[in-house]
Amino acid sequence: MLRWLNRLDDWLAGLALFACLAVVCFEMTGRSIFNTSHLWSEELSRYLIIVSTYFGAAAAVRTDDHIRVELLISFLSPPARRALEVLVSLLCATFTGTVGYFGYRWVKDSVELGLFSADSSLAIPIYVFQAVVPVGFAIMTLRFLAKAVHTAREPAAAAVQPETVGVQ
Questions:
Q1: pLDDT over 80 at 167, yes or no
Q2: In angstroms, rounded to a whole number, what is the distance separating the alpha carbons of residues 126 and 114?
Q3: Beta bridge partners of 165
Q4: Measured at the alpha carbon of residue 149, what is the angle toward residues 146 and 150, in degrees to the nearest 5?
Q5: Mind giving me the DSSP string for the chain?
Q6: Is the distance from CB of 64 to CB of 147 less than 8 angstroms?
Q7: Do 128 and 47 contact (CB within 8 A), yes or no?
């Protein structure tokens, strides 16, 4: 069960991307074969790309695939490297937690005001799509905290080693 839950963000990102592809193909078929267009398709595909991006970012935290500069890390001793990794993970957790909190307040305001997307024929409240911000950032926060705990607990010899490009 935990393994499935651990990869939920991968599945949600992939599902949103596939749904976007389906919407775009539907719209292209409608335009080219039936000479008709749907106003909601462009907006929905944009929202689905955003959903895919947020869940993909959460998955990238889990797999440690975010871009980072490792110039200074390569010169540190393993204990210092581990301490820096923990500090960076905690700072990232603080940032993502803060964004998640303000994202929650943003969604809450949209719910209370009953907002829908401006200039849209999409009959879905805007908070449905806005909710990906606090959810995605909450997942990232939990993943950064888990990474900090895991890094702090691992032995110094097993600390993350920076990758060296092109050196054998």
A1: no
A2: 8
A3: none
A4: 85
A5: -HHHHHTHHHHHHHHHHHHHHHHHHHHHHHHHTS----HHHHHHHHHHHHHHHHHHHHHHHHHT-S----TTGGGS-HHHHHHHHHHHHHHHHHHHHHHHHHHHHHHHHHHHHT-B-TT----SBHHHHHTHHHHHHHHHHHHHHHHHHHHHHS-GGGSPPPP-TT--
A6: yes
A7: no
What band does 21 get if pLDDT is binned at 50, 70 and 90?
A: very high
Contact 30, 160 (CB under 8 A): no
Q: Locate the domains of the chain by residue range.
A: 2-158
Q: The whole model's pTM is what?
A: 0.85
CA distance 129 to 131: 5
Contact between 134 and 107 under an 8 Å Cβ cutoff? The reply is yes
